[in-house]
């Protein structure tokens, strides 16, 4: 699985003009299931993200996790993280099939909740509009295959 994790002051996702999920302060997690990914990988990634120390402690050092600050997460599916960009038009053949991707997206979100991080989500496959205030900015790329 691939994830792009952003430290946020706030974020929201809208579908047809209505807010369907929001968070802050905490994390915006853009997530993509890749062909061949498993529930075990989703759980491992959720655990890693819940422990990722990207929030400042009292000394101003990035030493705290989203759980430490009692933050929350907005998790948004984004198959375009699977983009292959050898030419000018990206290909997405390495992304999981939609039914598998949706199941792994839901499993990841449930696994993140089980670590103690409150989560809201977008809607898988919908035309979503995501807004955020990136805090830092801090943006981390994670891939379970690397």
UniProtKB/TrEMBL annotation:
Task of the protein: An aminoacyl-tRNA editing enzyme that deacylates mischarged D-aminoacyl-tRNAs. Also deacylates mischarged glycyl-tRNA(Ala), protecting cells against glycine mischarging by AlaRS. Acts via tRNA-based rather than protein-based catalysis; rejects L-amino acids rather than detecting D-amino acids in the active site. By recycling D-aminoacyl-tRNA to D-amino acids and free tRNA molecules, this enzyme counteracts the toxicity associated with the formation of D-aminoacyl-tRNA entities in vivo and helps enforce protein L-homochirality.
Gene3D superfamilies, per the entry: D-tyrosyl-tRNA(Tyr) deacylase
Catalytic activity reported: a D-aminoacyl-tRNA + H2O = a tRNA + a D-alpha-amino acid + H(+); glycyl-tRNA(Ala) + H2O = tRNA(Ala) + glycine + H(+)
Cytoplasm among keywords: yes
Name of the protein in question: D-aminoacyl-tRNA deacylase
PANTHER family per record: D-AMINOACYL-TRNA DEACYLASE 1, D-TYROSYL-TRNA TYR DEACYLASE
Record note on domains: A Gly-cisPro motif from one monomer fits into the active site of the other monomer to allow specific chiral rejection of L-amino acids.
NCBIfam families: D-aminoacyl-tRNA deacylase
GO CC, one annotated term: cytoplasm
HAMAP family associated with the record: Deacylase_Dtd
Motif stretch (Gly-cisPro motif, important for rejection of L-amino acids): 136-137
EC nos: 3.1.1.96, 3.1.1.-
A Gene Ontology biological process term: D-amino acid catabolic process
EC supergroup of this enzyme: hydrolase
Subunit structure: Homodimer.
SUPFAM superfamilies (UniProt xref): DTD-like
Subcellular location per the Swiss-Prot or TrEMBL entry: Cytoplasm
Family in the record: Belongs to the DTD family.
């Amino acid at each position: 699985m691939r994830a792009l994790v952003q430290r946020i002051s706030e974020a929201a996702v809208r579908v047809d003009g209505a807010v369907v999920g929001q968070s802050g302060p905490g994390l915006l997690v853009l997530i993509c299931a890749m062909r061949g990914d498993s529930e075990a990988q989703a759980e491992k990634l959720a655990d890693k993200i819940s422990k990722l120390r990207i929030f400042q402690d009292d000394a101003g050092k990035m030493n705290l996790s989203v759980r430490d600050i009692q933050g929350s997460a907005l998790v948004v599916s984004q198959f375009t993280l699977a983009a292959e960009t050898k030419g000018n038009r990206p290909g997405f053949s390495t992304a999981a099939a939609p039914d598998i991707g949706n199941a792994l997206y839901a499993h990841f979100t449930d696994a993140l909740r089980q670590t103690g991080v409150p989560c809201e989500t977008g809607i898988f496959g919908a035309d979503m509009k995501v807004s955020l205030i990136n805090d830092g900015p801090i943006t981390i790329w994670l891939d379970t295959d690397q």
